[in-house]
Amino acid sequence: MLLEREAELAVLETAVSEVDAGTGALLLIDGAAGAGGTALLRHLAIVGGRHGARVLRAGGAQLERGFPLGVVRQLTLPLLAAPDDGDIPVVARKMLGALLGGSAQDPPPEMPAIATVLHGLHTLLVGLGEARTVVLLVDDLHWADELSLRALAFLTARLRGMRVLIGVVLQDGAGTRDPLVQEIVRAARYRVRAEPLSVAATGKLVGAQFGSGYDPEFAEACHEITGGSPKELRTLLGRAFSHRLGGRAGECERVHALGGSFRQERLRFLFRRDPAVEAFGRAVVVLGAHARLNLAGRLSGIDPGGCAAARAALEGTWVTVTPERTVVPEPGLVRVVEESMTAAEAAAAHRAAAELLTECGFPPEDVAVQLLQVDTLRDGREIEQLRSAAVAARRRGAPDAAARYLRRALLDLPPGSAGRARLLVELAAAELDLDPGSAVRHLAQAAPLLPTVRDRAAAVSWIPLAVAASGPLVSELVRDVAEHLGPAGSLDGYDRELALRLEARTWYAGLDDPGRLADAHRRLAELRNGPFGPDAAERELRSVLLLAGMLTGRADATETVRHATEILDHEPAHSGRAWSVLRIVPLLLAVAERSDVARPWLAAAREHAGRAGSPAALAQVDAQQALGLLSRGDLTAARDYAVRAFEAADPGRPDTLVLPAMALGSVAFSARDKVLAVRVLEATAGAGDLSLFAVRRSLRGMLAAGRGDVEAALAQFLDCGRRLDRAGWQNPVLYPWRPAAAVLSARLGRLDEAARLAEEYHQRAAAWGSPVLLGRALRIQAFVTEGEHGIRRLRESVELLDTAENGFELAKSCLELGERLRETDPGEAERLLARGHRLAEQCGAAWLADHGDGLFLPAERTRVPARRPELTRGEATVAELAAQGRTNSQIAVELRISRRAVEKHLTSSYRKLRIEGRPDLAGALGVGSGTR
To answer: What share of the chain is helix, strand, coil (3-state, %, to 5)?
Structure first.
């Protein structure tokens, strides 16, 4: 059944009729493989038979291309074997008689013999044509042997006046570089193209296989799989029928699976039949993204003609050629190629691809992708190529790719070689951004193999500060190398720079050692600027020493700002070594309440981190921005930056998580945000960093206080204080455990302890010397002090905070002073409360106006007689019923009011009572709870 071939069949009828009238011609049938060209050729034989023509058939085959005159023998031997056929001229029998004894092993006839064969074939066809029309059919013309092609070309040039129709089938793209094939094609008077079938014709074939009740979706799926190729359609439908499919829409997925498998089988058959196609397909798959036509041809090792033919055989079904002449393989081709190659063949192919790409000047990473697939690196040149690729990968911000190249290079290096030590160091440098633990292990392996102390110091100096403090393995490695190199004061040049960097890491690793910290401030004073300011290594050391001085309280805010400003003035924000400064110096300026100094530098650092595509650096910048905003009392913006930093930080890398967790924890504590607090606690579980320990204890204390468990809250803050004191961390800014402990002690009636903690906090705040900290300390003292003395402290706090840039702390002091003055000076109290409300709104802390400092709720101030806020009669009635356990619906029914009115009364009561919700009502009203 030939579908959608009406026009083509008409051409076949015309050609036979015209030739029957005495006009010889050649008819060409072309089209893609499987499109039905052979079926049209068979139909041409039927048409010729209806016209009474003698039909001669032959076909080319790839494996028979070496058989001389193989196609000619197929056409003539049946005739020559019939001695009684009177239509065959006697002279033709004599001229073609030599063909009767030929075999595949016969050498090609000499030129005179070839001429005899050609003329004999012409004589034969002329003689046969005198009796009736001859239809000579040749399938797969491109596979015909060369001598047969010469014979056909000879005949096509002499068809005029002969009753001979030559019909040939040629696949798309085949024979394009064979001059004999092209000579025959150019002689064609009639051309017929076998086009793919439409969806409608596909449906007819599906109906013939499964009956008229098939679903159109099934036919569409079959057409999509085969592209309308009649041959593939029949094969697919036969398989579907044998697998008991019924042509239903629900079977589309199954027919797709069948189509994929049989198409791959056809590709395997094509590979077996045509090694050139297989070689081209392998080259395309091996080259991957670099499979340009010229490179695929060179790697496959086939000539240009064979390459063009192989491309034609695969294009459309298995490969796509882009306008840039890149060959893109389909997944099915990749699977078949990978399954067909042995491990040795694959390694050889990838090595050849690497050599070809190197020869053509491709970048190192493109070559390295091929070398990663090689089983064994042969020489140092291939190892050097992988190393160059790693350098390129790190430059483009891809440390994971760099580590992959270096790990592969290390596989084939002897354990004790100097080259191995160099690669280990480079691998560690790449892994520092991915897996600091592995980086340290590789540095420890490399250090003994490096030939000089300077080499070892250079390698170890790349360890980030946080990693240097991560455990005894790395801290001992740093200390050992530093001791062998010697103190910076006795060295100069590059050796001095290395010594300073190692010293910075030694100091950082000892930040929780009080004995070590005691000398940090003295060491900072010893450092003197050169004529151009501190160099890069000294800036890193100064940053660490300044951090130590801040933590111990030996450096005050003024000194900290002076040193930090000098460091930022000389440190380029885009420097690869700026990581240490980024982690420390903006934090110090935020603690000293001068985050404005770091703002331009952080903006430049963020721009550089964005260009470099470094999420870790972006997280550090955003965390520092959050801490700076928090130091100015801007809770809303600080929260946004802190959340963004926390989400960008890698939870699996403690060295990059510490600062974002500190920032978000500080925001959560300041804003009394329980959701953020829980988030930080969950993400930092098991963290051993002392900074995170303090943050976690503070957040746990805050949550316990919010639940009303004052004893547990106080225990958390006191535990935090004891641990920080043991480490020598005395600065009151970063980890304000004392004010929280003072307030909680006062709530428990331990007024002497509260006063002592508040006084210590005030003394440390005065020593540090920043106005916001001192204003906060005065407010805490006022909280634990009754009467006029407490009010005087609050006035001092408000006056001091008026000079600072922190509306959040000023709002709290204004609100506290306003509450204190409600009874003695209502006018001033109202003004202070209004100002406090306005400031709280502006800094994103509107909850302060309703609830005060949520750490102290539910509040029970032991030093001041409790003042019960005045509720309206309706509010008091609803609140008391709710405190006794009634639901909103029950209250609404009992009081005969709407449920919405109940909710409004309760909301107003919560605000006036300064509580968070229903569980706190009984305590605030002094009534028993429970359902009546």
So the answer is: 70, 5, 25
